[in-house]
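Lab notes, practical 5.
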Amino acid sequence: MRGLRRFRVAAMGLACLAALVACGSPGSPKPRPDGTFALEGLWTVTPGEGTDYGAGGTNTLEFGSEASGHASFISRSKANGIKSCEAQPYELLADGTLWLDGWAYEVHELGDLVLLANDTDTLVLRRVDGAPPVTPCPQAEAVPFASPAVPLGDFSVLNGVGANLYFNTGAAGNPIVALDVVSKALGTARTYTGTSHRWVVGARSSDLFYGHCACGGSTVIAHFDLAANTALADVDVREEYGTNVTFRYGYWDGANFVAGGRDDRDRNLLVTLDGNTLQRLSQREFLPGAGVSDVALVGSELLALVGRKVVVVGADGIAEETTDLGGLEAVTPVGIAAVGSDLFVLARDAEGNAAFFQVDLP
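Output from the prediction step:
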């Protein structure tokens, strides 16, 4: 992975800078006599024409004082505001070549700019004098909480009600199970057969749930009573409202149910439905282009699980903060939910079983 991902931009001015390099006019910074690195400090990074680097927004690199080490890379997406932060290994050789994140560049000074160039790519670095344009990603450790010996359902996410976390297992019929966060014990597995919409995307109580069928486009949301094994209401938002969205997650906001997923225009949507009738009340786009696995409402704050990140979603649908989660390298996170003020992540372990983690966000 190079600089998070490679992102194409067009910049004629940068192409001209690359032409200067081809003429051999700029000089190449070398390590100073005292051993410090000529590129030490914080820089913004702009990809040249045809170069893919970062997330298409604001990119920064911060080098240390030595000629080799790890540079701090931060990229904030222009589309959705999500930040990616990583340490990129670098080494400045005596001939002026810079190895950065596995790629070799010639280093050239262009006035107050530094140009990194090779046969295919150019990166223009401009020194930051003042406040950083993007701040580092907060870090939080996902602490193992419970590992019940149950297979995790293919379309399971996570929902919290009372002192319980609800999810679908991978057993026959994909029963719904509660994990008690006090005792860490699993409750009785209950299978919903009233309709095919058994995959829980929202929990209103210990018996009242909202689900989808994981079939076709999954444009239908159903409200059901698990204890009575009875359907209460359903709505096909494609037929009723013309919104062709594949539902995969949601949350109960205390008054209404909010269902989320991606539509046929590749938009991440949150659709607010009346909690009883499932009449659509509103819908909005959020985190454009992001791969959202699940969402959770914690107090008044909307959180989204995106890979191994927890993203705070603002009222405008753009990320306000991005927290990187440690401790999840060996598992695949699939769900996020809160019980009170305690935040939990549901993941699939290497054996396909459910694994729960607790997260204390900074």
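Observations recorded by the TA: Helices lie at 12-23, 237-241. Confidence is low (pLDDT under 50) at residues 4-26.
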